[in-house]
Write a structure and sequence with these properties.
The complex is a heterodimer of chains A (560) and B (225). Chain A has 23 helices and two strands. Chain A has 560 residues and is an all-alpha fold. In chain A, helix 3 packs parallel to helix 7, helix 4 crosses helix 7 and helix 7 packs across helix 9. Chain B has a domain of 61 residues. Chain B starts with 20 loop residues before the first strand and ends with a strand. The chains are: A mainly alpha (560), B alpha/beta (225). Chain B: It comes from Kiloniella spongiae. Chain B: This is Thiamine ABC transporter ATP-binding protein.
């Protein structure tokens, strides 16, 4: 009976951090679901099916997510092509950095920029009025949702597409040039076959982001006809105080997300967050006139889409109200709340992620447990549990937790904890994608050597694991904190006059049409998020704060 | 020296110019570097020349210049008396074989070769027959539908050679073509190149860092220093 016992010990030794993380997550999810299910008996099915509100909402959610994804993809492909063929284009680096920041820039700030550009008195209408034309009030409704989703996701997709185009060997371009392939041939026979392989995963991700998008629809939706599930849940709780309705909507959202996940897992390919390298590539097809025209148009469209909203935000922020807003106590309270929440959420997410990443690296390394028959299916399950959280709408989680705990404590006490926990879980999938591959590579590199030299325990952490992984850890914590800083979801649900964060404060100012104040708050929020990100990433990664390294290392991106 | 001189009779030029490939006072400066590389070389039609030299001396650069992948700052590249400098890579009478990544990984052997016949891959049944013939010539009969990943390293280079053949260009440039292969396979491939060179009346330039490869097949060895 020695051997099974030993093997259990071995498993425990390798997997205990993961078990702790997973148990914690399971506990939270358990509370959330028990809350949701406890409300089920209050649900009056007849009422739900009487009017087709639910189905209208579901229909619109799918419709806008699908259309947004399609448009973002259609914009991203020509832009990625243009950038791939022109590695020395001026401004290319800046664009790529902006594109990777689109993950970190708070959604509500982007939304504000879009309002400043496309709103009734936005820059576009002001410009058109010079010629006595008016585009009218086109922003609120489907148009606004689409503009915002393309604004956020087209740069992200371009970057992913560009990265895979750049991964093609430089010999390809020499061969296409020598064979005399035209730009059209190259797209049809070389670029498109490659893109087609990564589109299911990358566009699936974008579809999910649009499907569960909240801040955009809340701010730009403009009416009940353009409600998505996520906003409907918010309204059910916040305005109708109709918990059963919220539960129905939550369950609908959840089951749809699960179906999407199951469909998506057919195309499951890791969308890994990684950095791009500079490569010297010469694309001979870039010299043709047609290529210059199409590339120019694509890039122009992208620049027109992305840049004006950003400039408009900064422009509006430079206003006489600057001093008044910056000296407002509310701003600083909100900033402090945001700081505490983001740091707490970031740390929790990091600890959970480390546990899971340690577990996965032991399960996947053949040198450790990888040879066991159930190791790989166990690893897949663990991996999947990370993705499921991505599908789990923050409101569903928050609603469930709120229902469970509302009898135990008042909302004022609960709200901060709920916001922290939900934010931590929401950022978990993102940072898992940074940590898991990093931990795996480092284990593969060092396991044999460490055992050979007898480096174990704390020594191993100090001499091997920490130096090898501190970069990934810094990036993970920085990203998690930045994402939590800019998050406007759960806080919109639980925020009160006494408990606001920067994104919520900004949203309130937008709601009361104090756009100058909102702009200044937006800028403040962006700065706080960016500074935290850079500070955390650099400190943990052990990098210096000189400008040149900032430039080289800030490029975070997702790639298929 | 070339042992087989019955070259396709070159068209009479008004000037009694050199009929092979001539590199005249060609200078190249790498982007962002001070150093200038100079090349002077004459290759007879039907000659197989090996280019040897230490790494970093510009062996591959020379081939890139001839193929039109890089631009010189001065000097001329001429073939049959005609200057090639201003022609795009596809307009030059040249076909190239690189050390690796000659084949598009998502296209079958047949399609990869077909690109040499029509760059938009619109192939007639006649073209397909030509592809089958080319595969026979390189000893890969029946492997039309294989993807590069399903072929060995040597087989991939054979497919690439087959594409060079169907392009019917008089000049073949080989850039360390078999350095990634093991010794026996390399010998086999070199023999194949020699045969193709002779049967198709090609002018062949091969860059290598292995003297034994050069000795094995070259009519003449040029040392770049």
């Amino acid at each position: 009976m020695q051997r099974p016992l030993q093997s259990v010990q071995k498993w425990l030794m390798y997997l205990w951090p993961g078990f702790l993380s997973l148990s914690f997550i399971a506990l939270i999810l358990g509370f959330a679901f028990s809350g949701l299910f406890s409300e089920i008996r209050n649900i009056d099915l007849a009422r739900i099916f009487q009017n087709n509100y639910l189905f209208r909402v579901i229909g619109f959610t799918f419709f806008q997510a699908g259309l947004s994804t399609l448009l973002a993809t259609l914009v991203a492909i020509p832009v990625a092509r243009a950038l791939a063929r022109r590695p020395t284009l001026p401004g290319r680096q800046i664009f790529l950095q902006l594109a990777s920041l689109s993950l970190i820039i708070p959604t509500i700030v982007g939304v504000f920029g879009i309002v400043a550009m496309h709103g009734r008195n936005g820059w576009l209408n002001q410009f058109l009025s010079l010629f006595d034309i008016s585009a009218g009030n086109y922003l609120y409704g489907l148009t606004g949702i689409l503009i915002a989703h393309v604004f956020f996701n087209a740069p992200l997709l371009s970057r992913i597409f560009l990265q895979s185009l750049e991964a093609l060997p430089p010999e390809y371009w020499r061969t296409t040039a020598q064979l005399g392939m035209t730009g059209k041939d190259i797209f049809r026979l070389v670029e498109w076959p490659l893109l087609r392989r990564i589109i299911p995963a990358s566009c699936g991700l974008v579809f999910l982001l649009c499907f569960t998008s909240f801040a955009v629809v809340l701010a730009l939706g403009g009416g009940p006809s353009t409600n998505t599930l996520e906003v409907a849940i918010y309204q059910a709780i916040r305005f109708d105080f109709d918990i059963p309705k919220a539960v129905i909507l939550s369950l609908a959202q959840l089951s749809l997300c699960l179906i999407l996940l199951i469909i998506g897992s057919k195309f499951a390919r890791h969308v890994v967050l990684q950095k791009t390298e500079e490569r010297s590539v010469q694309r001979f097809d870039a010299r043709h006139t047609i290529a210059k025209i199409t590339d120019g148009l694509a890039l122009l469209a992208m620049v027109f889409l992305v840049i004006p909203p950003l400039i408009a935000t900064v422009w509006k922020a430079v206003s006489p109200r600057l001093i008044a807003v910056l000296t407002d106590e509310k701003l600083w309270t909100a900033s402090f709340n945001s700081l505490l929440i983001s740091l707490a959420a970031g740390c929790i997410a990091l600890i959970l992620a480390i546990g899971i990443a340690l577990m996965l690296r032991s399960l996947q390394s053949p040198y450790r447990l990888g040879r066991h028959s159930f190791a790989s299916s166990f690893a897949t399950m663990t991996d999947l549990s990370g993705s499921i959280i991505l599908l789990l709408p923050p409101f569903v989680l928050a609603t469930g937790l709120f229902i469970t705990f509302r009898t135990a404590a008042s909302l004022t006490v609960l709200a901060p904890f709920l916001v922290v926990i939900v934010n931590a879980l929401m950022t978990l999938p993102f940072i898992l994608r940074i940590l898991v591959p990093a931990f795996e590579t480092s284990a593969q590199k060092s396991d044999h050597l460490c055992d050979n030299l007898g480096i174990k325990g704390l020594n191993r952490i100090r001499i091997i694991d920490w130096p090898q992984n501190r970069k990934a850890l810094g990036l993970a914590l920085g990203l998690s904190v930045a994402l939590s800083t800019g998050d406007l979801s759960v806080i919109a649900l639980f925020g009160t006059q006494d408990f606001t964060t920067l994104p919520l404060l900004m949203f309130q100012k937008m709601g009361s049409y104090r756009l100058d104040d909102a702009a200044i708050t937006a800028l403040f929020l962006c700065l706080q998020s960016l500074i935290l990100f850079i500070l955390i990433e650099r400190t943990i990664a052990g990098k210096r704060f000189s400008f040149s390294t900032t430039k080289a290392n800030k490029r975070v991106s997702t790639s298929a | 020296m070339p042992d087989d001189q019955e070259a396709p009779t070159p068209k009479e030029n008004h000037q009694a110019s050199f009929q092979g490939l001539s590199i005249e006072k060609l200078s190249y400066q790498h982007h962002g570097s001070e150093e200038v590389l100079d090349f002077d070389l004459r290759v007879e039609p039907n000659e197989l020349v090996a280019i040897l030299g230490p790494s970093g001396i510009g062996k591959s650069t020379l081939l890139s210049l001839i193929a039109g992948f890089e631009n010189s700052i001065s000097g001329a590249i001429k073939f049959e008396g005609k200057e090639l400098n201003n022609l795009s890579p596809s307009e030059r009478p040249i076909t190239s074989l690189f050390q690796e990544h000659n084949l598009f990984a998502h296209l079958s052997a047949e399609e990869n070769i077909g690109l040499g016949i029509h760059p938009g891959l619109r192939l007639t049944s006649q073209d397909k027959a030509q592809i089958t013939q080319a595969l026979n010539d390189v000893g890969l009969t029946g492997l039309e539908k294989r993807l590069p990943a399903e072929l060995s390293g040597g087989q991939r280079q054979r497919v690439a050679l087959a594409r060079c053949l169907v392009r019917r260009r008089p000049i073949l440039l080989l850039d360390e073509p078999f350095s990634a292969l093991d010794q026996d396979l390399r010998k086999e491939m070199l023999k194949l190149v020699k045969d193709l060179h002779q049967n198709h009346g090609l002018l062949t330039l091969m860059v290598t860092h292995l003297k034994e490869d050069a000795d094995a097949i070259a009519d003449r060895i040029v040392h770049l220093t």
